[in-house]
Amino acid sequence: QACRPLIARDGLSAVLIEPAVKFLAERGHTVQLGHELRSFVSTDGKVTALNFGGEDVIQFGAGDVVVMAVPPRAASSLLPGLKTPTEFRAIVNAHFRFEPPPGSAPILGVIGGVVEWLFAFPNRLSVTISNGDRLVDMPREELAQA
């Protein structure tokens, strides 16, 4: 009972992205995807605008707040001097169209196997392999067999 993992059975979009977009839309805001932030405009150490390139600049009001959620490489380019990780390891996920056996645990840890985690979803099994650098260039069929 000390650890009860939560699993997004219908994917992370359904539990994180879609509710956030709906929340913003209900308050009159829009979300633009595929719209790369080029830089922050700041005055006196405070962000005053977002520059998306060219004349596409969004100005902020006094009560506005910026939350930056980007990968390390993007964060360091947007905020020069910010310390970010410089080494990375691949995570390999594989999904199999396979009905899990009745009563399967939703998540199962694996010791001594190629995979570390096995997830049971309706009509599929998924695996996660941490530190999968050794596997990323393996042909898909060979990886699936492993």
Layout of helices and strands:
Elements: H1 12-26, E1 39-43, E2 46-51, E3 57-59, H2 72-78, E4 92-96, E5 107-109, E6 117-121, E7 124-129, H3 140-145
Antiparallel strand pairs: 1-2, 2-3, 4-7, 5-6, 6-7
Quick synopsis:
By secondary structure, this protein is an alpha+beta fold.
**Biggest sheet, open or closed, and with what strands and sense?**
4 strands, antiparallel
What class would the helix/strand composition place it in?
Answer: alpha+beta
Main sheet: strand order: 4-7-6-5
N-to-C SSE string, H for helix and E for strand: HEEEHEEEEH
Number of structural units classed as domains: 2
Tags for this model:
23% strand, alpha+beta, 3 helices, 7 strands, 19% helix, 3-stranded antiparallel beta sheet, 146 residues
